[in-house]
Amino acid sequence: MSTRTPLMAGNWKMNLNHLEAIAHTQKLAFALSDKDYEAVEVAVLPPFTDLRSVQTLVEGDKLAIKYGAQDISAHDTGAYTGEISGPMLAKLKCAYVAVGHSERRQYHAETDELVNAKVKAAFKHGITPILCVGEELEVREAGNHVSHTLAQVEGGLKDLPAEQAETVVIAYEPVWAIGTGKVCGAGDAQEVCAAIRGKIAELYSQELADAVRIQYGGSVKAGNVAEIMAQADIDGALVGGASLDADEFVKIVRFRDQ
Ligand SMILES: O=C[C@H](O)COP(=O)(O)O
């Protein structure tokens, strides 16, 4: 297990309307205690339409839960119908934003170049990007998963100054393990996460790479989180489906008890 503070983030994807978001966040807040927040940073990534409600709840009740968005526009303002900008997310005091999630890459044809622009847009507005990377099944079967993922890391971090790179969060999510119930073996996940840290060391320095948090994502549940978190280069989880069940997500946050 690493010495970096773990980040457990629930990516709700396109689930929960704003009323459900309030109820869900309240349930998490009720279950989690100071002891949990001392050991783990907890974040939720609701849909855009829920963010104001979650912000109101978190600020009103002074909750320690962090929140963020699932995507960000590369542009600050302008004629970009349907997009949500960094200044808008900053105004909602988002701490995090997922960038380059495989579902954005797959369904919205996001390239490494666009993902890099979004990473920079997040930092420009004081929001920490969670840069998502990972290979499709055919890439893994061809044995190219490490080089594929490292190219995404390099593309996503291109021209990023060291003071920003050291605070970025990387989420390694093998696409074939997302929402499928197929978990990447903890050792296999560790292999790629260690390679990601090595790539960051090559791009910046070992000291900087040692500070970066790398999450694993892909069918994380209470039943497998302890083994995943036992790996030296895994510093948290980006949780999809299981984060929609408050009791399950709390168990994931309490991975040391599982
Ligand atoms: O962002 C989260 C990941 O895509 C993982 O989703 P999952 O936990 O439903 O497999």
Automatic annotation (TrEMBL):
It catalyses: D-glyceraldehyde 3-phosphate = dihydroxyacetone phosphate. The active site is at 101 (electrophile), 173 (proton acceptor). Substrate binds at residues 11-13, 179, 219, 240-241. Keywords: Cytoplasm, Gluconeogenesis, Glycolysis, Isomerase. Pfam families: TIM. The keyword Disulfide bond does not apply. One of its GO terms (biological process) is glyceraldehyde-3-phosphate biosynthetic process. It comes from the Bacteria. InterPro entries: Aldolase_TIM (IPR013785), TIM_sf (IPR035990), TrioseP_Isoase_bac/euk (IPR022896), Triosephosphate_isomerase (IPR000652), Triosephosphate_isomerase_AS (IPR020861). It is found in: Cytoplasm. Homodimer. This is Triosephosphate isomerase. It comes from Streptomyces phaeofaciens.
